[in-house]
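U., I forgot to send this yesterday:
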Amino acid sequence: MRIQLSDRFDYKKLLIFVLPSIVMMVFTNVYTVVDGLFVSNFAGKEAVAAINRIFPLIIIMGSLGFMLGAGGSALISKTLGEGDRERANAYFSLLVYVTLGIGIFIAVVGQFAVPSVARLLGATGKTYDYCVLYGRWLLAGQPFFILQNIFQSFFVTAEKPRLGLAVTVLAGVTNMALDALFVAGLKWGLTGAAAATVASQVIGGAFPIIYFACRNNSLLRLTTTKFYGRALARSFMNGSSEFLSNVSASVVTVLYNFQLDKYAGGDTGVAAYGIIMYVVIVFYAFFMGYAVGSAPLIGYNYGADNKAELKNLFKKGLVITTVFGVLMTASAEALAYPLCKMFVSYDADLLAMTLNGYRIYSIAFLITGYGVFGSSLFTALNNGAVSALISFLRTLVYQLVAVTVIPLWLGLNGIWASIIFSEFASAVTAAVFIIIYRKKYGYC
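Result:
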């Protein structure tokens, strides 16, 4: 059964439609976790600490793909809802070509920037060497990584979420298989993990280019295009929340690392935080996957001025977000020990620190989804300013304040607990904006 953007959605149909996006996001993060497992168990905690120190740079660069994917998807969905498929394809093509150009530029410039950035982020000795090694490998793969990110949104808009999932699974299986070969089998250490990741990104970025360039039965196809300055600017604006979210998360990671250097003794605390992030991103992926999967539906119905379906999608989105929050928190707490032990069975002190931090951090899942859903809602409604503000406050301002102030009272536990306070503030902020704009957009 083919589900279309114009359909009326009950819970079953909505979950079926967004499921590939959820699985895609989960699987994308699962193979990142597998990377962490191999690195931690075969290369040691210095390698884990190095990845956690340099990864903010990689995420900031890759977030350009999320920005153009989310923002462009919102614009293209709205254009399709207005019935102008030819223009939608022109916008789509322009965004893909611009993204590819940005990726190539980053790959070249990044090679020269990595050593300085590694020092700036506090890396020294062996950890510094690992940072430079890993950073250069992953920056070389940036054109494909950014394309992989942008196509995660465009596959859903093209009514091909299952194909998007298949590409993600293929890339992920490649990554995991090569991790086993390069890291565990050939003992290439961090070099092997980096090579495996880049190989998977090549698959994830190149296949969609080939698919959309050829004749296909989706709503989108790569064509010749021209420069649409306003459309490009609007895509940047619409997706600015996703960009700010990733950039802010990277900045916050840097601050967490500095705080952990202070409260937890350097690389041990940084490694613990890195391991916690490896685990929790899988749970975050459920919220992000739902946001990516449902946004084109909201954008399409906004473009078609179908307020009845907007109300339907909004109500169901809140219910699903609430259920996900309860399930994610319960699952995270129940699986805390086995998940953490998979990474650090070789170091009892590191395991104890990681387990304690993870159990505190996971409480935030109860409320995480509301901020994510609120920001995604306004992106889909082509209100990039509000979406960006929610994201900016959620991922940067509230977390910076929390991770700076709360440890003054609670010490190391305050670092782990800061996410709870910031997510609560984010949920309240999203609720305020939803109430303010409810009459303008008619979603409730």
